[in-house]
Design brief:
This protein is mostly beta strands. It contains five helices and 24 strands.
């Protein structure tokens, strides 16, 4: 769930305490499994968006590559998606096809819209890591201009830099594929399609044909990731720099340390949040959401303007929630919800905030968005991959 407020003012939500694992800044900056990440205005002056840079190459051809900046880092999805409009015409990516030679296309469905385009193959390079022949989505490819109704029905198209808020989206969630066995065994409208000359139609997609988590395809450091971001003051910050670290317990810079492990549902990636005696059974952590989104009738929402879609309590609220994993482990999280109108007005040139929240129409969901990540190291372990805390999927912090 992403509620991108685009202007020269910002806001955010905060949570507190503790980081597990990790190494020093000097060690991180030079390690081959570490990539720089930033919260900055991005290409469209949005708030609380986490970006990185990705290099993609034609499979097996390291001389035909393109480096793409301001790709949104999203732990709430799986797979690399790049806008066709930012790709160089000289970058020849091979089309993914089914057993009959028909092109494969994909619909990425998000709470705020959809992405549509063909699945193509690319070598993906991030920091010193490489994944070969990764199926990725090319968003809004002109050769696939007709969008199936079962895809477009979910909401508006995110088919430009302005609507996506980035040049692409790097999904580094806890799953290896973006749909998995469900789409491999069933035709699921609004997910995968084959597109012969007669037009696109919903179809099954083998696991190898689906968008892949690039981190899970690295030769090393392939069992998960760590997002390491510094704390942000209650008044916000102009920007934030941190690290995306590949692997969990594979190097000296990605150990779990004292991090609390929260196992997640193996099918949905969700856990439980308990707040004010309310239970949110479908909770998740997500760098792709720029606030904490949850239903709370006691917190006033903003009346409109730049803060539309965020919370505007009369005074900053200090709240305490309990996160509970599927295995029973619990962790208490203290966070604040500030008045978005006041934040934007008092800090018009800030783009990172630790205390921004908003309502959620689904009363079962608690979306721990980017504010959750400020001031802690957050681990996402990929399904089926071994770690020092056992196999994924799990999150830890």
């Amino acid at each position: 769930m992403r509620n991108f407020a685009s202007l020269a003012s910002l806001a955010i939500l905060l949570l507190t305490t503790g980081c597990g694992g990790g190494g020093g800044n000097a060690m991180l900056a030079t390690a081959p499994n570490v990539q720089a990440i930033t919260v900055d205005p991005g290409p469209t002056n949005n708030i609380n968006l986490l970006f990185t840079t990705v290099t993609i190459c034609a499979p097996g051809n390291p001389s035909n590559c393109q480096t793409i900046d301001h790709v949104l880092v999203d732990t709430g999805s799986t797979g690399l998606r790049i806008l066709s409009s930012v790709l160089s015409p000289s970058l020849s990516l091979r089309q993914q096809t089914d057993a009959n030679g028909s092109p494969v296309a994909e619909c990425g469905q998000f709470a705020d819209g959809y992405t549509w385009g063909p699945v193509k193959l690319a070598d993906v390079n991030i920091s010193g890591e490489q994944a070969g022949s990764v199926p990725i989505q090319v968003i809004a490819d002109p050769a696939f201009s007709v969008v199936p109704a079962s895809c477009s029905a979910i909401g508006p198209a995110e088919d430009s830099v302005q609507t996506l808020g980035a040049n692409g989206l790097l999904g580094l969630g806890v799953f290896q594929q973006d749909c998995g066995i469900t789409c491999a065994q069933n035709v699921v409208p609004g997910t995968y399609y084959i597109c012969p000359s007669t037009g696109c139609q919903s179809a099954q997609a083998d696991l190898t044909q689906q968008l892949q988590n690039p981190a899970g395809m690295f030769s090393v450091d392939n069992n998960g990731i760590v997002i390491a971001l510094p704390p942000v003051p209650a008044t916000g910050a102009a920007g934030v720099s941190g690290y995306l670290i590949f692997g969990i317990g594979t190097q000296g810079n990605n150990g779990l340390g004292s991090a609390q492990v929260i196992t997640v549902d193996a099918n949905t990636g969700t856990f439980t949040t308990i707040l004010n005696q309310l239970t949110f059974s479908n909770s998740f952590i997500d760098t792709g959401s720029n606030a904490l989104f949850f239903a709370d009738a006691n917190i006033a929402t903003c009346s409109g303007g730049a803060a539309s879609g965020f919370d505007c309590p009369a005074s900053t609220q200090s709240l305490a929630a309990t996160i509970q994993g599927t295995g029973g482990a619990t962790s208490d999280v203290v966070f604040q919800v500030a008045n978005a109108d006041s934040l934007f007005a008092s800090s018009p040139n800030f783009f990172a905030f630790s205390n921004l929240a908003g309502p959620n129409s689904d009363a079962t969901r608690f979306d721990w968005g980017l504010p959750f990540f400020f001031g802690r190291n957050v681990f996402s372990a990929i399904e089926g991959q071994n770690t020092p805390a056992g196999p994924g999927p799990f999150v830890a912090y």
